[in-house]
Amino acid sequence: MGTARREALARRHRRLHHVAHRHLPRQDPLGRGGDRMTVAFIGLGNMGGPMSARLIEAGHRVQGFDVAEPPRRALTEAGGIATTSIPEAIRDADVIILMLPNSDIVEATAEEIMAAVTSNAAPAAIRDAAHASPRDAAEANAGAIHEAGVRDRTGAIVVDMSSSEPLRTRALAAALKARGLTLVDAPVSGGVARARTGKLTIMTGGDSADLDRVEPVLSILGTTTRAGTVGSGHAVKALNNLMSATHLLVTSEAMLAGERFGLDPEVMLAIFNGSSGRSGSTENKWPNFVLPGTFDSGFGLRLMLKDMRIAVDLAAEVGTPDPLGQAAADLWSLAATALAPTADHTEIVNWLRKAPR
After folding, report:
1. CB-based burial of residue 122 (10 Å sphere; 0-12 exposed, 13-18 middle, 19+ buried)?
2. What percent of the chain is modeled with pLDDT above 70?
């Protein structure tokens, strides 16, 4: 075959190859365009359980871990894969979601994630990273992560959906970045009922590109609002709960005073909800959990107090006045001491009824 003939055939092959591949869908490591993702979900409690179930219903592979056996069993029954360790849960994960009680546990979990990445990484990559510049070390670790079966920073992102401390979140993001992992924060509001229906309010913090990559997962769980850089979601979540708790406390004081005067509670709520005193407490908490006497919103009183303390600590750290917030946190602390450890946050009304005048 002559040279000209061979060149013509080669050009034709390249042209056909280009046409064939031009119409193939690009595979996105985080599932945009309908690809199924592997999601590691750490923390399968009151909120994590229904949230992970929604991801399963949406067609994603969920590998979950919880220190307790019943939540793991519930995940299996929902169609997920229950694991007995964090390293097992994060294996081959595209997204690693944390839904844990506080920053201490989040940081301990992140240490396990980083240790798993390091222990499974190729020895040569670890050796090279140990003697490299910080930037080169991060790149070497990212490659080791990929070899270990945990996707590198272009795929796996750690999403902290817990109510964590914002300044500690920023520090943790830096520590994870040094290991080739990315952290964004995405705490939620809405309680168990909205977790089940996928109507949570999700407050996110992180780089826009990173948040774009996890949006397909978060959108299954609720509506996202971008608060700013990493840690911003945790900051605004704590501030929101400080406001919510203060609303509930003063609403309860007003409701009890009105009842003692002889006003009908339902009439009071109707008037408040059509007036400037309206809040989530008058529209939701009092009519749905207090008046019926169920006190089962699904959000614990001690968890609310934890978020309030995060908020007042943040105010102290940035140097803004917070006398009302501090006073509200002190009153909620008294309620937490007096009520059962498992008390729902709406039970503060019961404490208030018995509080000394």
Report:
1. middle
2. 80
